[in-house]
Amino acid sequence: MSTKTTFKRIALVTVAALGFGMLSSVSASAAAPTAVTVGTIPTAQVGVVNTAPITITLPSGATTADTYAISVRVTSAPAGSAYRSINASGLNAGVAATGNTVKAKITIDVATGNGGVLTGDGVDLADGLTVSAMFSPSTAQVAATSLAASFKINVTPDVAGSYTVLVSTQEDANGAHENEEYTAGDANVSYTFTTAAAAATVTLAQVAPTGNGIATATKANGMIFKATIKDSTGTVSQLGANESIRVYASSATGTVTMDAIRSAAAGNTLTTQTTTSEYTLTNADFTNGVAYLKFTNTVAETAVITAVGTGLLSSTVTGTLSLTTKTASTVAATGVFTDSTTQAAAITAGTGGHTAVTGTYASAASRTATSHSYKVTLGTAATLAGDFVLGAVVDTSGKISGLVGATYGYAIATAAVGTATTGGTAAVSITATLSTAGNSFSVTVAGGTLTVTSATSAVTAITAQSPTATTVRQADGASTAMTLRVEDQFGAPVASSVVTVATTGRNASTTSTTVVSDASGYITYTRTDAGTSASVNKQDVVTFTHTPTTGSAVTKTMTVIYGSTAVSTIACTSGAELDTATSVTYRDISSGDGAEEGAASLCTVTIKDANGAIMVGVPVTVTTASAGAAVVSTSATLYTDAAGTVAPEVYAWTSGAKTFTVTAGTVTSTETVNYRQADAAEVRSISVVADGNRHLVTAKDRFGNVVPNVRIYGTRTGNGLFGGGAPTANAITAAPVVVDSTTGVAEFIFNAGSADSVVKYQVASAADTPSATYGYTDALAGNVDGGTAPDALTATVAGTALVAEEGVGASFSAAGVNSVTAAIAAGTDTGQTATDAAAEATDAANAATDAANAAAEAADAATAAAQDAADAVAALSAQVASLISGLKSQLTALTNLVIKIQKKVKA
User: Fold this and answer.
1) Which of 907, 879, 757, 901 is nearest to 821 (CA)?
2) Less crowded by CB within 10 Å, the N or C end of the chain?
3) Is the torsion defined by CA of 757, 761, 767, 772 positive or negative?
4) What are the tens digits of pLDDT across the range 517-576?
5) Domain 569-675 annotated CATH 1.25.40.10
6) Where does the UniProt annotation place the signal sequence (predicted)?
7) Is pTM, for the whole model, over 0.85?
């Protein structure tokens, strides 16, 4: 204890002894630690040490001569636990309750990186419930701006259930472990953990690299995989005492090694193992149900990794994983890293989250950057004889894999490098967020090593956000609200930056105003005009300045011009000016997640004065009173640019004509936009309505808009038939030019059979191809989609002038409907169907009668024709008979004449 602290205590005791009393607001120790915080609590198991990370904030002015008590007590435990009993001593060594072989135990350790001195790991205090240790900080700790000391609080649960642990701290009074139990006013924290159910499953998964590994005997270039254990309900578990999991490789012809990577509490360091082909995991290897291992192989092959329960863990707990290694090329050249083309372009634009690679091998990254892309040039004498070029990654800060200091192989396919053996290049891309300044990782390829480190933000720009124009017009006496953003060298916002604001011109300031950027880097300032139309000076120049501790100041100026803002005309060009009643330009509705995703420019608004000249810096507002439509919040008020234009964005989530009012000065213009759902893939549900023997199937999106062009496939059980006599049918929901009551409806005809029928209509991706996942018809309630990992609908967040709204329409979250059915009774139609059937029967009877009459008339005609033919034959026969008779008479006369002549000749 320091001399200063001792004198302070003597003084306090003296004051109390003299009868002056003590003020209740004065702490018993002015040098007591100020706070205790707890980190992530690992999954617990009976008989397994549960280690919680604890940090103590030491008081300012602490010295290496001061000592502080760290006291731990379990304040709540399940029935039968030894923690529920007062123990004269023993919790630090372990105490077993009557009838229990598992000991309740509390120990205290200094965490990795804590350079102070812990006097013993713990002492049982007189209350029989508390274990305490004394700590003295190191020279480095007391010299630091933030005086923090970290510890590991080890509590062993002795029976299943929930435990609450109280950790408190105070300045040690005499170094004798007296009166160090928790006292009201001591800095403290409580945390709770519950023992897990027994492990029932183990799952193996590759962590890094995400692709193929490299065949090498070097551990630094192997693969990292993990084993995850869960109980029978799928909840994270922990191995119990004497439970273990054997992990080994099979079908491996090379030399395989598998080493455990310890949890974060142990620094994620690669342990040294004597085995080469297998490793046995115990509860010490698992943190929150996950254990990490390193795998290497000396040959190119696919090895099957198997995990199986051993010890007291059932052998039915098993898992497998295939890990493939490839042959590595020999690359003797020196690798040279540069930014990828895409990243270089982003850096130039100030949006890449990186600075250009400096020198050859270093790159600075923003703390918000998530992707890091580089190009490596192999140089000369590269022999690309293998499948892959060997690389290695060191995850220095654990921001890639989650394992601090983890190393693994990085595989670059030789095909990506190219066929040339000289000057070959390949892409190197790492996904990681280096969220704290100084976080880093490194990549080594062909002897060249690139180190990427997140840099401390330095303010390099102040950008106008609302208005975005740097020159604005205002009426005399008006106020101008300005919002700007303070940004660093990567274009990321900088919080808590001090910016001074000064005005010159019409409303010149006599003193500067100071503003501080918020968590998003924004600063807001309002310039109120005190002038009138009679004022000679017509403008203000407002200057925003950030002055860093070192380096040059960063400034941004905004100009406000006062006076007449008389707008004469508003022109709004959208491309739909030639629409007619029969030719309408429609915009689509987005219903996947948020309706705002369908936002598009209302039109290009051009503002001019009475002389036809464009007006710069004029505020333009856009509003709508149409139901189911909105203006994007960041577009509600815009200022015309150098061309006198703005392009506000609008959207809708219901079909129909929506009107938007554009206002500039005292002039308004009303614009109409027609919306409908035009994308078949937006369908979320279908429904069916029977109209006689017609079935009308309607497709709708999440907001209830009808959806055209959706294919519906119909099938049936029973023996009824679709129109045309088929057992199946296809139809597509209608998509007319103008939206009406038939849009989004597909019509089917179905006739009842002799047996009951059930007709099923389902969304289809193609003819005769029903699809259970088409569009959003498989979506779960409250989700965008379905599947094993559905995406939840984005919650609605109102927009502001700076940040646009999100998740508009999140309340329209009903589950998708992929199929519907309609029951048809055997031989029975009701209502209109029966009437239609009767009418059809009458029509058939009439048709049959008409056919019979036609047949009779045809028969009569045939009879008449036959009689006419008979009469004609008789007449002809008579004529022939008469002719023959005449001929015979003539022949007889001729014969007689011949005879007479002959007689005369003989005579």
Assistant:
1) 757
2) C
3) negative
4) 998 899 999 999 999 999 999 999 999 999 988 888 999 999 999 987 689 999 998 877
5) no
6) 1-30
7) no
